[in-house]
C-alpha cells in the first residue's frame, strides 16, 4: 500500500471517530511497521490533515446540532401551546399570570418552566454548536 493511500485510510478512520490506537494497529497490520513507526506516521497525518479530518465529521455534527436546535424550538412550542390553548374560553385573561392559567388548565407550573428552560437551553446550545462548526471551517 502506498503512503498516499495509507494516509487516506488514516484520515477516514480518525474522521469516523475511531480511537487512535486502533488506527495505529491497523497501520501496523497494513504495512508491517513496528508500533512506534506507525504511531509517528499517524501523528504526522493528524497534524498535516487536521482540516480534512474535521470535514469528515462535519455532516454528522451539523445534523446533530441542527436537530438539537429544532428539538429545542419544538419544546418551546409545546410550552407555548400548554400556556395558550388551555386558556381559550377561561376566565383568566391571557396577559395575566401564566402560572394561574397553567394551574387552571390542570397542569403544574413546573412543567411549563421545565419545558421552556430545556427548550431555550437546547436552542442556545445548538446554535453555539453550529457557530463552533462554522468557525472551524473558516
What would the keywords be for this entry?
mainly alpha, rod-shaped, 80% helix, 6 helices, 0% strand, 138 residues
Structure description:
The chain is mainly alpha-helical. Helices cover 80% and strands 0% of the residues. The longest helix has 35 residues, at 50-84.
Order of helices and strands: HHHHHH
Number of DSSP-assigned strands? 0
**What count of structural domains?**
2
Largest sheet: none
Whole-number mean pLDDT: 83
Shape: rod-shaped
Percent helix range: over 70%
Class based on secondary structure composition and strand pairing? mainly alpha
Number of helices: 6
Query: CA-to-CA gap between the ends?
Result: 33 Å
Summarize the structure.
By secondary structure, the chain is mainly α. The protein folds into two domains: 3-48; 54-137.
Write the layout of secondary structure elements.
Layout: H1 3-15, H2 20-31, H3 35-48, H4 50-84, H5 98-104, H6 109-137
Helix pairs in contact: 1-2, 1-3, 1-4, 2-3, 4-6
